[in-house]
Specification:
alpha/beta; disordered N terminus; ten-stranded mixed beta sheet; 10 strands
Length: 321
């Protein structure tokens, strides 16, 4: 208990310099908009963050779910909100790829928002239909090369990390896959479990329950090291594709034009909050690792991610819809 109090005190001290720059902010409720339904992975992380920010900043912080249009409904609500730092968007990596996956995007995610912080990342897990013979990634790739017409990959959402990681796996593994689009992870998992589609790569926390139940077969995870949640599942790197590290990630944005001092305070406070959540173990149960970046680092990360993703989509012949 004493160590926890010390950690919280350190987090508060980390926020103090930014607080001094703008002493009257925040002095009322902060609203965090999650553009997906309640209960999902993005929502769960956002609620942990909201609770920790409430503790640190001493104001109410609520999560509001605005699901619809593949995240664009919630994104638009934040884009058009007053740029005062009291309305924030908490979303996944898909947010920044609107221009790459939508023919008529509702906004430009890089210029119509003020980036605040990249907060967390999580590995993906490759699973295959349990009826198939391969037990290792090398066997999966060999089978796909031998009979490419028989290997299909489920894509839960266009432009999502699951989509991009699958494209990267096919590219680095030198295999040709047929991609089958789905509206979400659950229907994709059902079809993989039933043998209608051969493989799926999606967030580990989403597919792990079915993998543990034997309804899909786990092959590898995309993190740099094995996960404590699935210690028997090797990484893609140690399974034959050196350098293959990929993951889903999550970030916070404010409306364009939010004052720089408020952006800085929020970045400092969110970094402190995620650090504390990481130390407390609250994130580990979700298979998530905290990330701390300043605003400029976040901007550069997004630019690099968008560039890499656009190239992957283009090389695969993907066209925005």
């Amino acid at each position: 208990m004493k160590s926890l109090k010390v950690l919280v005190a350190c987090a508060m001290l980390a926020v103090a310099p930014a607080w001094a720059q703008t002493a009257k902010f925040p002095d009322r409720l902060i609203r965090i908009v999650v553009p997906f339904a309640a209960g999902g992975g993005v929502d769960n992380i956002a609620r942990l963050l909201a609770n920790q920010l409430h503790t640190q900043l001493g104001v109410s912080v609520i999560v509001e779910n605005r699901a619809g249009a593949n995240g664009a409904l919630g994104g638009k609500a934040v884009q058009t909100a007053t740029a005062d730092g009291y309305t924030l968007l908490f979303s996944a990596a898909t947010h920044v790829l609107a221009k790459e996956v939508v023919a008529t995007p509702p906004y430009d995610p890089q210029t119509d928002f003020s980036p605040i912080a990249r907060v967390a990342e999580a590995p993906l897990m490759l699973v295959i239909a349990p009826q198939l013979e391969p037990r290792k990634l090398t066997d999966v790739l060999a089978a796909a090369k031998k009979e490419p017409d028989k290997w299909t990959a489920a894509i839960p959402a266009a432009g999502a990390p699951s989509h991009l990681a699958t494209l990267l796996l096919a590219k680095q593994g030198n295999v040709k896959l047929t991609y089958v689009p789905y509206k979400g992870t659950q229907p994709a998992l059902v079809d993989v479990g039933g043998g209608h589609v051969q493989l799926l790569m999606d967030s580990m926390i989403s597919v792990l329950p079915l993998a543990k139940a034997g309804r899909v077969r786990p092959i590898a995870i995309t993190s740099a090291k094995r996960s404590s949640l699935a210690p028997d599942v090797p990484t893609v790197q140690e399974s034959g594709l050196p350098g293959f590290v990929y993951g889903s990630w999550y970030g916070v944005w404010a409306p364009k034009g939010t004052p720089a001092d408020r952006v800085q305070l929020l970045n400092t406070a969110i970094n402190a909050a995620m650090t504390e959540l990481g130390k407390s173990g609250a994130l580990a149960s979700l298979g998530v690792e905290p990330v701390t970046q300043d605003v400029e680092q976040f901007k550069r990360y997004v630019a690099g991610f968008v560039s890499q993703s656009a190239e992957l989509l283009k090389s695969a012949g993907f066209k925005p819809e």
